Amino acid sequence: MSDMRLIVAGAGGRMGRALIRTISETPGAVLAGALEAPGSELLGQDAGVLAGLPENGVKLSADLWTLSKDADGILDFTVPAATIANVAIAAQRGLVHVIGTTGLSSSDNAVIKSVTGQAIVVQSGNMSLGVNLLAALVKRVAQSLDDGFDIEVLEMHHKAKIDAPSGTAFMLGQAAAEGRKIPLEQHSARGRDGLTGARNTGDIGFASLRGGTVAGDHTVIFAGPYERIELSHKAEDRMIFAHGALKAAMWAHGKKPGLYSMADVLGLGDM
Ligand SMILES: NC(=O)C1=CN([C@@H]2O[C@H](COP(=O)(O)OP(=O)(O)OC[C@H]3O[C@@H](n4cnc5c(N)ncnc54)[C@H](OP(=O)(O)O)[C@@H]3O)[C@@H](O)[C@H]2O)C=CC1
Ligand SMILES: O=C(O)C1=N[C@H](C(=O)O)C[C@H](O)C1
């Protein structure tokens, strides 16, 4: 098979730059385009230079329709409005769309789902191997413990992160809810503040910390009578997410249209 031609959306962002570096190191992948927001001061700049590499001749552009004429996939770590705009074009062009953007609403997710009859989408709030394995472990532990054990999800990220709780925290909460066979929407406790009353039995709680340059720390706590189990993952470098995204794109190349997860990519679906 010829090289997979990939567009990086949000090319000037933290993940965008990590993805451009990862593509440059990945045999079988080539950077076909670099997308940035309309009006960004980075438009026209060289994607390689922005990512700390030698000049590669790929200039940042805000025109996905033109960029995608000759591409196979798009790696999208941007903001919800941009991802939703990209979904329609990726579907029309038949691109593999790897979606890492978090903070999506349920109606955004419904839009993504609506195109998967014709589009190949891999979506995950966290593309790392470690977190996807952690989610499988959380589900397994939640299956074994009844609601005598209170489940709390704690996350910490760098101070520039704009959404909370993190996409990963939701993934882990969802895994716990699946293990316990309850709907997360009806059992999630978020944003405690003030005179909240006692904790509801069976709730899954979320707490978010922000500060410094933390790439992403997540802990799921199972707090029972006189004992506690804590399962944690600490991302030391966002390159782990970029490597996961590349793996997802190359895995999805040539697959049938559908909505896939990182558990599918990593073969963790049955854990
Ligand atoms: N699933 C996973 O494994 C991971 C997910 N993420 C998620 O990825 C997203 C991005 O994170 P991060 O890179 O840290 O954030 P950044 O803010 O550093 O990057 C986002 C980039 O997207 C750009 N952008 C905004 N609008 C558009 C548009 N319409 N078209 C193209 N580009 C646009 C921004 O440009 P401008 O600054 O000009 O607005 C910015 O350069 C977040 O939602 C984050 O939570 C992050 C890491 C891992
Ligand atoms: O914004 C980030 O940085 C990250 N976002 C993702 C999330 O919301 O979970 C993944 C990772 O934790 C880094």
Automatic annotation (TrEMBL):
Stored InterPro entries: DapB_C (IPR022663), DapB_N (IPR000846), DapB_N_CS (IPR022664), DHDPR_bac (IPR023940), NAD(P)-bd_dom_sf (IPR036291)
Positions with a binding annotation for (S)-2,3,4,5-tetrahydrodipicolinate: 158, 167-168
Chain ranges of the Dihydrodipicolinate reductase C-terminal domain: 130-266
GO biological process: diaminopimelate biosynthetic process; lysine biosynthetic process via diaminopimelate
Subcellular location: Cytoplasm
Main enzyme class: oxidoreductase
Domain of life (superkingdom): Bacteria
Domain Dihydrodipicolinate reductase N-terminal: 4-127
Pathway: Amino-acid biosynthesis; L-lysine biosynthesis via DAP pathway; (S)-tetrahydrodipicolinate from L-aspartate: step 4/4
Leader peptide range in chain numbering: none
Pfam families, sorted: DapB_C (PF05173), DapB_N (PF01113)
A GO cellular component annotation in the UniProt record: cytosol
Gene Ontology molecular function: any one: NAD binding
Assembly mode: Homotetramer.
Primary role: Catalyzes the conversion of 4-hydroxy-tetrahydrodipicolinate (HTPA) to tetrahydrodipicolinate.
UniProt protein name: 4-hydroxy-tetrahydrodipicolinate reductase
Record lineage: Bacteria, Pseudomonadati, Pseudomonadota, Alphaproteobacteria, Hyphomicrobiales
